[in-house]
Specification:
The protein is an alpha/beta fold. The protein has one domain (12-279): 3-Layer(aba) Sandwich (Glycerol-3-phosphate (1)-acyltransferase). Helix content is 48%, strand content 14%. It contains nine helices and eight strands. It has helices spanning 2-7, 9-51, 57-75, 103-110, 125-130, 132-140, 152-169, 193-201, 247-265; strands spanning 78-84, 94-97, 116-121, 144-146, 172-175, 205-211, 227-233, 278-279. The radius of gyration is 21 Å and the shape is globular. The relative contact order is 0.16.
Length: 283
């Protein structure tokens, strides 16, 4: 085999170039189709929001955006399998997940988390506003924008304001405790402020682990390849007995849940799902 590779390098390179061209052409075509679909969906969502006086956030998010995300994932050939330990509650909940890829936002919205406000990184707000379709949808869905950990004073003020909002509305919220996309292939550091919010509200935490195989993962880009993303929703973790002095250890306990799931998935990606396992192609 080594001799063949050494004596025929030109043919090997020649075979690789058409593959790369086809992959680039696929990415460009799907990106154009995705942008067109997002634009159409944004116009429709805005029209529905106007008719409903912007008072049907759950419909925009849990119906319109959910099925849009599922359609986009299917268009890119990305299948999502959900291993779910228990049914999601309508009660106020803090959803947290790892964050390693651009695919995450489509996967999370596709889950249709009940009565949930999503949180984006404030440094991406300008990009999303420039991308008019995403800007319109995030506005209609009442997405919140959190300052990065590099701005602790602004971030602390944002969490205080967000706590007041959630107390008033009773909404659930999704946050990434890593605070940014961690594309190193490892689980990032978990910021404590997310868990302080949960403890202050007395709301349970539901861990969501998103497992994207490296061979299909676009990372910070958009060139996802066909494959299967596995999502694991773990049982809710009560925070009612959490104390301020135990915040650090409680944060690590939640992170350990993610570490355990990751360890389970790494050696064998074909382990049997629990009884509520489903995929997006099945009602």
């Amino acid at each position: 085999m080594t001799t063949m590779e050494n004596t025929r390098p030109t043919n090997s390179v020649g075979r690789g170039r058409p593959f790369r061209r086809r992959r680039l052409a696929r990415t460009v075509l799907l990106a154009a189709m995705t942008l067109s679909l997002l634009t159409i969906a944004a116009v429709i969502m805005l029209a529905v929001a106007v008719v409903t006086l912007f008072r049907a956030r759950r419909f925009y998010s849990e119906v319109m955006a959910k099925w849009l995300s599922r359609t986009i994932l299917e268009m890119w050939g990305v299948r999502v399998e959900v291993d779910q330990a228990e049914r999601l509650s309508e009660a106020q909940t803090i959803y947290v997940s790892n964050h390693s890829s651009t695919l995450d936002m489509f996967v999370l919205v596709a889950l249709g988390l009940p009565n949930t406000r999503f949180v984006g990184a404030q440094d991406l707000e300008g990009f999303l506003r420039f991308m008019a379709p995403l800007g319109i949808m995030s506005y209609v869905m009442e997405t919140l924008w959190a300052p990065p950990p590099s701005k602790p004073a602004e971030r602390a003020a944002w969490f205080r304001e967000t706590e007041r909002l959630l107390r008033r509305t009773g909404d659930s919220i999704y946050l990434s405790p890593e605070g940014e996309r961690v594309t190193t292939g490892k689980l990032g550091h978990f910021n404590r402020d997310t868990f302080q919010l949960a403890a202050d509200l007395g709301a349970p935490i539901v861990p969501i682990y998103i497992d994207i195989p490296a061979e299909i993962d676009p990372g910070r880009g958009f060139a996802a390849l066909p494959g299967t993303v596995r999502v694991r929703l773990r049982p809710a973790i009560s925070t009612r007995d959490w104390r301020l002095e135990d915040l650090g250890s409680n944060t690590e306990k939640v992170r350990d849940v993610f570490v355990k799931i990751r360890a389970e998935l790494q050696p064998d990606r074909s382990d049997a799902p629990p009884s509520l396992a489903r995929n997006f192609s099945t009602p």
